[in-house]
Amino acid sequence: MAEIVSEKVAIIGSGVIGQYWAMIFASGGYHVSLYDIDQSQVSRSLTAVKERLERYEQQGCLRGQTSAAEQVVLISGHTNLTECLKDAIYVQECVPEVAELKTKVFEQMDEMLSDSIVAASSSSCLGPSMFAGGMKNRDRVVVAHPVNPPYFIPLVEIVPGPWTAPDVIQKTQSIMRKVGQSPVTLKSEVPGFALNRIQYSIINECWNMFKEGILSAEDIDVVMRDGLGPRYAFIGPLETMHLNADGIVDYCKRYADGAYKVGQTLTIPPVQYDVPTA
C-alpha cells in the first residue's frame, strides 16, 4: 500500500473538473480540501466523488495504490476559503472560464498565499496575466490546464505568466508527475495554449473541407478516428516525421515542397462559425 503523504492540496470550485482533480490528488496520497460557496454543492460533489471512485474500483480503473475507501477519506469539503487554504502547499482553481470570476477568486486568495505555495488555474485559454496581474503574490500563480476527463487523459499544460517564479513552475511539474499526469511547459503565454491551438487548427480545416463540399462530416470523422487519431495516439507528429524517412531532416527535404504547397491552400475561417438557432 502506498504511503499517504501529509501534504495538503486545496481545490477551488467543486464542479466536474474540481471533482476529477480531487480524485487525482487523492490517488497520489494527498489530503484534499474541496471548496465551493454553497454547502449543498459541496455535499453533492463529495457524494459524486465517492460514487465515482467506488465505480472505478469495481471496473478496475482506479488510479493509485490505495483503495477507493482510503482515497475517499482523504477528501474533505469546505465553504470557508481560509480553512480550505490553511496549510495547503498547492491550490488548483476550477471555477468557470470567465476572466472576471477568476480575477475575483485569485484576489480573494491573494492575502492567504504564502511565499512557498503554488496557486494554479485550470483555465483552458486564459493565461495568468488575464486574471492575476493585479495580485501582490502574482509570482505564485501559474496555469495547470487539464484535458477533460483529466482522470483518464494525463496531459497538463503548464503556462506561466511573465512574472511567475521559476520554483512555482518546477513544483507544479513535480506535483503533476507525482500524481501520474504528463506535464508540458509553455515558455510564455499564447492564446489557446498548445492543445487548443493544435485542436482548433484541425477543427478549422475540418470545417473548411465540409463547408466546401470536399468531405462529408462522417468521412471527416473517419479520417481522424481511423487515420491520424490512432497514429498520433502512439507517437506525436514530429516523431512520426522522424521515423517516416531517414530522420526528420531527410523528411523535410523530401516533403517540404509538398507541405508548403498544401499550406498555401489552407484558410482560417474569417468569421465565426454559423451556429443554427433553435
TrEMBL record:
Q: Please name the GO terms that the record assigns under molecular function.
A: L-gulonate 3-dehydrogenase activity; NAD+ binding
For this UniProt record, give its keywords in alphabetical order, as a comma-separated list: Cytoplasm, NAD, Oxidoreductase, Phosphoprotein
Q: What is its EC number?
A: 1.1.1.45
User: GO BP, one example?
Assistant: fatty acid metabolic process
* Main localization (coarse): cytoplasm
**The organism's place on the tree of life at top rank:** Eukaryota
Query: What compartments host this protein?
Result: Cytoplasm
Q: Spell out the Pfam families in the cross-references.
A: 3HCDH, 3HCDH_N
The molecule here is called L-gulonate 3-dehydrogenase
Organism listed in the record: Pomacea canaliculata
